[in-house]
């Protein structure tokens, strides 16, 4: 089985054209790979570029240099240079992502927000809603909220909708950007269980967890992102 | 899913005398894809849309469209009659002002039915049943079917225009500021409706808008235009979250946060 994701020599900076074109280097020389059935954790203080790495792997940030090789439908694709259409196909079939914040759409119910990724992958809408119900109840989201659009939910409620949406599919790679940040202890434990189940199913996970207990519980390996600080490249 | 695009656009330019409408625009559009074209007034986005929909002929460049038989046809070499047929059947055009896309003095039902008759439907009962079905899909009450759109609110008119365009099962829909001029709450409802219809029907669409939130909600891909040229293009969330071109950065940083 090929390595699901290999990152080599990736660099990223932001050029702020509105501020006289100053260049803000974020990260450089990023190289690592993740394994199926393992949860790899990106460690390091805020601002070290952890989220930027996840966003590049999801095609949400452009990549300045380097390669991101992902195993997609039996072939290998360099996400750093892939066309938008290819990135969309990779998101549909191969890489799932739980972002920090839920981007809500007016008038779409929480249940359908969660079921949507499955429907996009061609699953029957009712079957997808069934799985969405199971996940939302596992995450203790009160049933009376399921039919409502999540825009007015609390932070923790929105995050659980977001987690359910990310975990509902069977993507072989799953990126997690602080999925437990605004959850109580009970729900944190549910997320730890969900992650364990994904590992058992052979999913390669890559996440950011500021919560020490969660990190201890899920991490197989920690990559210190400060090693990729721009300017440290020489070694 | 097919591996061939629905529309191939290559080096399309339109000049109005010495003034640039749009300059050297190229892209491919695949079935089921929604492409947003953003930019401020005068950026050339509407000129581009009008060229693509053959309402306007470009000064140079080509656009070829994959017909239902799988053959690509060069749009600007078709006869006027062929282009009109395409416009009536396989394409839709949603105007910013519904009055431009509707017949204001015939009933709502007839506005929808007319497009069906244009593709050869003749059975009155069937046409009326389809019209009723489409009005309900765009959330217009059945008892309004015999009313003229003159008696409708702006939001209802826009929903009627959408029904009129989609009733023939087009594969490509052009939209020019489809939510422009509507109240915010009406806009949200229309966006949600459009988003659902586009997904359910697997439509390809080219949406011109100056509203980045509309682009974010509706499109997967985005082109940013300035002075007739494409200054940046890519995945919609990539362009909005990591804008690279100076002009895109200016646009994104000008969004008002609520």
TrEMBL record, chain B:
Gene3D superfamilies: P-loop containing nucleotide triphosphate hydrolases (3.40.50.300)
PROSITE patterns: ABC_TRANSPORTER_1, ABC_TRANSPORTER_2
Keywords of the record: ATP-binding, Lyase, Nucleotide-binding
NCBIfam families: CP_lyasePhnK
Name by which UniProt lists this protein: Phosphonate C-P lyase system protein PhnK
Single Gene Ontology MF annotation: ATP binding
Annotated Pfam families: ABC_tran
Coiled coil: none
Protein family: Belongs to the ABC transporter superfamily.
């Amino acid at each position: 089985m090929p390595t699901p994701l290999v990152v080599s020599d990736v660099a990223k900076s932001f050029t702020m054209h509105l501020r006289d074109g100053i260049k803000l280097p974020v990260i450089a020389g990023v190289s690592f790979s993740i394994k199926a059935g393992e949860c790899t954790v990106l460690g390091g203080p805020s601002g070290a570029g952890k989220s930027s790495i996840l966003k590049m792997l999801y095609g949400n940030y452009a990549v300045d240099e380097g390669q991101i090789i992902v195993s997609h439908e039996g072939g290998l694709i360099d996400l750093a240079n892939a066309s938008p259409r290819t990135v969309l196909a990779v998101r549909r079939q191969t890489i799932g992502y739980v972002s920090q914040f839920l981007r809500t759409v007016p008038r779409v119910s929480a249940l359908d927000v969660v079921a949507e990724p499955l429907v996009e992958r061609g699953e029957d809408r009712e079957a997808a809603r069934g799985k969405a119900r199971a996940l939302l109840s596992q995450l203790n989201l009160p049933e009376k909220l399921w039919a409502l659009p999540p825009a007015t939910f609390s932070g923790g409620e929105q995050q659980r909708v977001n987690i359910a949406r990310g975990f509902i599919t069977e993507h072989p790679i799953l990126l997690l950007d602080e999925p437990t940040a605004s959850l109580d202890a009970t729900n944190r434990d549910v997320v730890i269980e969900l992650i364990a189940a994904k590992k058992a199913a052979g999913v390669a996970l890559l996440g950011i967890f500021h919560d020490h207990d969660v990190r201890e519980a899920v991490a197989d390996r920690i990559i210190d992102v400060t090693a990729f600080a721009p300017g440290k490249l020489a070694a | 899913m097919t591996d061939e695009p629905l529309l191939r656009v290559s080096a399309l330019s339109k000049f109005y005398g010495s003034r640039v409408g749009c300059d050297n625009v190229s892209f491919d559009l695949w079935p089921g894809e929604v492409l947003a074209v953003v930019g401020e007034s005068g950026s050339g986005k509407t000129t581009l849309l009008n060229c693509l929909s053959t309402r306007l002929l470009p000064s140079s460049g080509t656009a070829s469209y994959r017909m239902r038989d799988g053959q690509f046809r060069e749009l600007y070499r078709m006869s006027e009659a062929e282009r009109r047929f395409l416009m009536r059947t396989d394409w839709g055009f949603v105007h910013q002002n519904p009055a431009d896309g509707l017949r204001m003095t015939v009933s709502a039902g007839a506005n929808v039915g007319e497009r069906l008759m244009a593709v050869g439907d003749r059975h009155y009962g069937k046409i009326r049943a389809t019209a009723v079905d489409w009005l309900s899909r765009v959330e217009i009450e059945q008892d309004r079917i015999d009313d003229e759109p003159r008696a409708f609110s702006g939001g209802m008119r826009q929903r009627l225009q959408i029904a009129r365009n989609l009733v023939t099962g087009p594969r490509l829909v052009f939209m020019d500021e489809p939510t422009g001029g509507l109240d915010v709450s009406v806009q949200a409802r229309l966006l949600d409706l459009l988003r659902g219809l586009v997904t359910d029907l697997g439509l390809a669409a080219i949406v011109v808008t100056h509203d980045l939130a509309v682009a974010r909600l509706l499109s997967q891909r985005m082109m940013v235009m300035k002075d007739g040229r494409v200054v940046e293009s890519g995945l919609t969330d990539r362009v909005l979250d990591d804008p690279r071109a100076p002009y895109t950065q200016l646009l994104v940083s000008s969004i008002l946060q609520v």
